[in-house]
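Tutorial, part two.
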Amino acid sequence: MVRMSAEERRESVIRAAMIEFARGGFNGTSTEVIAKRVGVSQPYLFRLFPGKEAIFLAASKRCLEEVKEVFRKASEGLTGQDALHAMGKAYQGLIADDPDMLLMQMQTYVAIASAEASGDREFGEALRAGWMEMYDTAHLALGAEVDETTQFLAYGMLVNVLVSMGFRADHRVWTGFYESAQPKK
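Running the prediction step on this input gives:
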């Protein structure tokens, strides 16, 4: 049996945390369940991360990075509407193939709002920075057009909400979305 390095173990914790936090949220997920998914003890988990918040932040940052990369790869060499539709299709593919990715995004937004409501602005700072990298990636692919970027991300957020709520791909609520923003049927 090959022994994992601390960095490889850290990576496995982030992946496991994405799944567990996606499904249970920040408050509903214990570090014990994350440790169990990875196959390590809680004390070992805390050698890799200083606490639950650090694990959640790493998982949320990874989620935002992965969405940013999906946008970057999909729009590579494209501009305008071609980039928009390529990013929309790639994003639809991402959340269809990995529903936990969508749920992790939603949990990230809820956790930031909850922290802010309790007076903790610092919690969301790093995540807002990651979100802005995602925004900038889409923005540049769309020719730095603010209206296009806003519309693209607005559609994306509506897609997130509708998919999270379980609206099936054939539901009338999807009528009016451009084809690349519609879920796979």
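The chain is about 75% helix and 0% strand. In part three we will examine how such features are distributed along the chain.
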